[in-house]
Amino acid sequence: MNNVKTSKSIVNPIVQKDLKVISRSMKFSWGLFAYEAILGLIFIFIMLTIRSVGLYSGIRTNTEVYESYIAFFPVIGIAQLVMISLIIPIITASSISGERERQTLDVMLTTTTSAPSIIIGKVSSAVFRVMIFVVASVPLMAISFVMGGLSWLMLLEYIVLAFAYAIMAGSIGTFCSSVCKKSIPAIIMSYVIYGGIYGITYVPLLLVAILGNIDKASMSLIPLTLNPVQTFIVFFVGRMTGESFFEELFSYGTQRSRLFEFMTSTTAWLIISVALQLGVAAFFIWMASLRLRPRNK
Q1: How far apart are CA 247 and CA 169, in angstroms?
Q2: Which residues make Cβ contacts (< 8 Å) with residue 5, sequence separation at least 6?
Q3: What are the Cα distances from residue 103, in Å, to 96, 100, 109, 178?
Q4: Residue 88: how many CB atoms within 10 A of its CB?
Q5: How far apart are CA 198 and CA 99, in angstroms?
Q6: Among residues 46, 172, 261, 292, which one has the fewest Cβ atoms lying within 10 Å of its Cβ?
Q7: What does the pLDDT read at residue 260?
Q8: Rounded to two decimals, what is the model's pTM?
């Protein structure tokens, strides 16, 4: 009995409560069905596109047809990221503001659960929901690996990258929910922060391109490691072609410094990006915890 009690105490109570709600919610089940239906339509569209390309390009061998199935991986993967980017703010932006609207936040704060535990629980619950969507799409993406010649390690890397992105996006949404008193403003604020991260990180690279100072390219790449969009571009290009995404981009006029070589390495880029995204997530979780203290509620 003692072991059972100990194991239960390890689970965050917020996550435990939300998981019970998810398991009994038809709304979540229908949402998962709609998600898979959209991916299924994209899957059919890709199949028809491959068939049309084959007809217009002449007779193709079975080997060429199988090789074309590699397109399933990036297309389905990018479609998932777009939908995740739209879903996470909706899930997390109402995590704290929704408690305020239901007038249950004061009750939550009077429990023994600390503010950081509440925030971590809300983020973990959102990440868990998103990863259910990602894992449910694995059979569709697996076609690229069975027929397209890709390794299963790539699929694992994609799931890890999606997991890190979900944590960062979930922490931003939860922070916005702790700042705003209503869910709608929190959702808008989340999209604004996402847009800032996606757009501002490209500014140094654009300045280098405009000014023509290609020799400073390595320094302009550093902010982009924080950009999830660029991270997935580097991943898809690097893992599917075996070449660095930046090789063609900076194939001329660049001094090949050690920093440049390190920054343009696909593996190094992915590791740095994941670490920075988790660091940003920790920062927003900390800020949300400060906002959730009783005097700031």
Answers
A1: 29
A2: none
A3: 10, 5, 11, 14
A4: 26
A5: 29
A6: 261
A7: 65
A8: 0.80
CA dist., res. 162 & res. 170, Å (int): 12
pLDDT at res. 148? 56
Q: Which pLDDT does position 98 carry in this prediction?
A: 72
Angle (nearest 5°) at CA 285 between 120 and 200:
135
CA distances from 265 to 6, 18, 143, 222, 261 (A): 44, 40, 27, 13, 6
Give the integer Cα–Cα distance in Å for 43 and 55. 19
> What pLDDT is stored for residue 6 in this prediction?
42
Q: How far apart are CA 87 and CA 70, in angstroms?
A: 27
For the chain of 297 residues, list the mean pLDDT of each consecutive stretch of 10: 47 72 75 83 78 62 60 79 82 77 70 77 84 82 66 84 90 88 86 88 79 66 85 84 68 57 78 92 90 62
Token pair recorded at residue 275: 């670490």
